[in-house]
Design a protein that fits this description.
It holds the Pfam family Sulfate_transp. This protein has 20 helices and seven strands.
């Protein structure tokens, strides 16, 4: 007699993976909340919603959602500008907008966003995050603007060197970073424990054992921290700046989530992401987070990759990780009060460093300098201006670069004095280059046959195709043989006329 199939055939693998993801997510949820200027418990709330709500919805089966370091800078600016009560409205509106975009099947369009702009965005976030957390590491107050944070670092270093408490705090942060970097080299079974959790536990133990004068997480309680937005908070929706902030949240969180989904799909052989449904799942999660006044959520590549590597097979692993976060928040909230703030700063400094593609930038510069320039300009713009405008600058530069490359063409003319004049057109022939292309063609001798080779073209738009046809008709109307298309290749000795 055969055994009936189990309803949860992969429960053991998913259960083990959920514990790993929980241990990875716990310190990050708390750290992102503290760095965003909101109560630590709100980070846990977003992680819980990411597991229990978004985790149960279709889209990407193994991707894990929660508060992300990539939105820390944007959240901090929003809370600083509009206040904590308005955060719920922003996140709620972000979720609704994502639901609408998913229903309109716009999910796949986010994959068309320039990779250089996305990496530049993450690099800019990483730079601002690192700069801001260096102040937190020493227990100092950071300037408000990203540029102010960077410019003020030398003065902050001088202040820290003159304070015993600041040096002790910075030492805890530096030790946290060192543990996270070195822990990856640890053999199993110790190496199986997430480095961030290990670093926080060690930092907590050291500060307690030696009575170090460092600040710890302020605990308000889960229910006291959850504050649904009141009716007054919705009045801010009348402001243009407020609406721009919502748009920034929606676009950046959606792009980061779907970019993460594409990366996670490359890590496993299971069902691929359904992007429109994943966008709606993120929207549903952010809608719930907004109603609870919590942080916005995105899919997080660190947690998602940990989920895959831990052997997760179905979405049960990410749902269970939300259960563990809920149990921790409900049963052990006082444990948060023992965590040193400089340890969380160290975790976010490490996270910010990983957002900057140092190795990839060098390779990109050697292969595609234009894309590298877009990446750098986007990152610098985010640091010097702000997140939303920095991304817009990067997108504008990317579009301009694409338009330039799409219209770059070259005309080579070879005239040996006898026989036909051979013309070789290569690159991308668009209406932007049409005037100069026609200038070259119309300067050819009218009493000589012409062979026109278009095989080197990557693109020929309608305007150019029509204009070339009209030119060929006019050239042949004088009694010379019709213009012929050839497959010839220019040989040595040809003279080149470049169409700028």
């Amino acid at each position: 007699m055969s055994t009936p199939p189990s309803r949860f055939p992969h429960l053991r693998q998913d259960f083990a993976a959920s514990l790993v993801v929980f241990l990875v997510a716990l310190p990050l949820c708390v750290g992102v909340a503290v760095a965003s200027g909101v109560p630590a418990e709100l980070g846990l709330v977003t992680g819980i919603v990411g597991g229990l709500v978004t985790g149960m919805l279709p889209g990407s089966s193994l991707q894990v959602s929660g508060p992300a370091a990539g939105l820390t800078v944007l959240v901090f600016e929003a809370v600083d500008t509009y206040g904590l009560p308005a955060l719920g409205v922003i996140v709620l509106a972000t979720g609704v907008l994502q639901l609408v975009m998913g229903a309109l099947r716009l999910g796949r369009w986010f994959r068309a966003m320039s990779l250089s702009v996305i990496e530049g965005m993450l690099a800019g976030i990483g730079l601002v995050l690192i700069a801001g957390q260096l102040y937190a590491a020493a227990g100092l107050e950071a300037p408000d603007s990203g540029l102010g944070k960077v410019v003020g670092l030398p003065g902050a270093a001088v202040d820290a060197l003159g304070s015993t408490e600041a040096l002790a705090s910075a030492g805890v942060a530096a030790g946290t970073v060192a543990v996270m970097v070195l822990w990856r080299r640890m053999p199993r079974p110790a190496g199986a424990v997430p480095g961030a959790l290990t670093a926080v536990l060690l930092a907590t133990a050291v500060t307690l054992a030696f009575g170090m004068p460092v600040a710890t997480v302020e605990v308000r309680g889960l229910f006291d921290s959850v504050q649904p937005p009141g009716a007054d908070a919705f009045g801010a929706l009348a402001g243009i700046g407020f609406l721009g902030t919502i748009l920034a949240f929606a676009l950046i969180s959606s792009a980061e989530s779907l970019f993460s989904a594409a990366a996670v799909d490359r890590l496993h052989t299971g069902p691929p992401t359904r992007y429109n449904r994943e966008l709606m799942a993120q929207g549903a999660g952010n809608t719930v987070c907004g109603l609870l006044g919590a942080l916005p959520m995105t899919a997080v590549i660190v947690r998602s990759s940990a989920n895959v590597r831990a052997g997760a097979r179905t979405k049960a692993s990410r749902v269970l990780h939300g259960v563990w976060l809920l149990l921790f928040a409900a049963l052990l909230p006082s444990a948060l009060a023992l965590i040193p703030l400089p340890a969380l700063a160290g975790i976010l400094i490490h996270a910010g460093w990983k957002l900057i593609p140092f190795r990839g930038l060098g390779a990109l510069w050697r292969a595609h300098r234009g894309e590298a320039l877009v990446l750098v300009v986007t990152a610098v713009s985010i640091v010097t201006v702000n997140m939303f405008e920095g991304v817009l600058i990067g997108l504008a530069l990317s579009v301009a670069k694409t338009a330039w490359e799409a219209s770059h063409s070259r005309v080579e003319v070879r005239d040996e004095g006898a026989g036909p004049v051979r013309v070789y057109l290569s690159g991308n022939a668009t209406f932007l280059r049409l005037p100069r292309i026609l200038d070259v063609l119309e300067s050819l001798p009218r009493d000589r046959p012409v062979e026109l080779d278009l095989t080197g073209l990557h693109h020929l738009d309608h305007a150019c195709r029509t204009a070339l046809g009209h030119w060929a008709e006019r050239h042949g109307a004088t009694g010379t043989p019709p213009v012929k298309l050839t497959d010839g290749t220019p040989d040595e000795g040809s003279t080149a006329v470049t169409v700028p």
